[in-house]
Amino acid sequence: MITTVLAGIPSPSQGVWYLGPLPIRAYALCILAGIVAAVWIGDRRWRARGGPPGAVADVAVWAVPFGVVGGRIYHVVSSPDAYFGPGGDPVSALYIWQGGLGIWGAIALGAVGAAIGCRRAGLSLAVFADSVAPGVLVAQAIGRLGNYFNQELFGGPTDLPWGLEIDPAFRPVGLEDVATFHPTFLYELLWNLAAAALLVYLDRRFRLGHGRVFWGYVVLYTLGRGWIEALRVDPAEQVLGLRLNIWTSVLVCLLGIVGFVVSARRHPGRESPDQVAASVAASEGPAEDAGGDHPGGEQDGEEPDEPADEPAEREQPPAHP
To answer: What's 9's DSSP letter?
Structure first.
């Protein structure tokens, strides 16, 4: 049994199940599970920072759709041949359920959606980003399991014991006779989980705030994505001999370093829970008087002031005799 396990990691026999005519896709389930995990982790961290419960889910209503659209746009732009090249099908660019979400576009446009959601709810975007950053890494790790079920985005040939067995129908042109490949989905999954744990530790140890946990996420993720991307053999746009995603990793990593340093210099320390709660309360504005148009403006649960005693009737001066 041990020899069989070490001979390679078998790929799933299928990635789609049918509930009557309804297809249930493993890729979609992994994405949804990742979103749930990110919201749950983010909500716990957000409340620990002094934020109101439920706010992370409210912002996610904006961030997730924006992120999905952004991820798909980046994937199509960075791998256009399958859609607009010879024999490509432009309509299939809309088939998001078949896989293909670029993390760079997902994070960029997802951040726009989060900014809109935070602005509408009167929340600090920096505190929100710091709260959800480790959860986003966990979500990305879970999402990589979708690539495993789809037998896609794997690395080059390898005879290592943990090589991923790929069915002949999914092997790249020119590598039809190769049975095992680098399981880059597993490399990135483990890297993301380790980076999430490291971020949580650093946040607790050094009390990171004002966006520095998010910038740390950017740096840690891109450091891993760069070398993992170099192992992959799926078609990709090349720039100066390197895959486009490698150049994107380098540039985004530098952006993350700059963002971290600037934040550390401008805003040392972390926002206190009282500051976060106060900012949320301030954004909601003064509470409306419970008494409506009543000029007294009594608060809920308070008894109205008793009317002042009427002045005693004035004694009439005695009549002159």
So the answer is: B
